[in-house]
Amino acid sequence: MKCKNCNATMEIDPSKQEAVCPYCGAKELICDSDAVAVEKIKSSTFKEMEYAHMENQRRQQDHIEKEKERLILMGLLANLLLHLYSPSL
């Protein structure tokens, strides 16, 4: 993209959606087309859904691990009680 004032190559700052000339300081706003804006929204929405799905999977895995720990502890406790209260042979 060329500067309209001095014809130098402008530097683009995507975060501000503007181009700035490094020589004369001229600025030009960069506008997205409707198609580009729609694609950005779709991409952002997809990423949010993917992150939510990954978080849900992590929570389910955490729940499974806690349930396994609980069952192991219950088994150990039951085994201990059997040994404590069973008649000696």
Question: How does this structure look, described?
Answer:
- The protein is mainly α and 89 residues long.
- Helix content is 58%, strand content 10%.
- The protein has one helix at residues 34-85, and strands at residues 11-13, 18-20, 27-29.
- The protein is rod-shaped.
- The mean pLDDT is 88.
List keywords for this structure.
rod-shaped; single chain; 1 helix; about 90 residues; mainly alpha; 3-stranded antiparallel beta sheet
Number of helices: 1
Helical content class: 55-70%
Q: Kindly report the average pLDDT value.
A: 88
Radius of gyration: 31 Å
- What is the topology, as strand order, of the major beta sheet? 1-2-3
Distance between the termini: 92 Å
Give the helices and strands, then pairings.
Blueprint: E1 11-13, E2 18-20, E3 27-29, H1 34-85
Antiparallel strand pairs: 1-2, 2-3
In short:
The chain is mostly helical and 89 residues long.
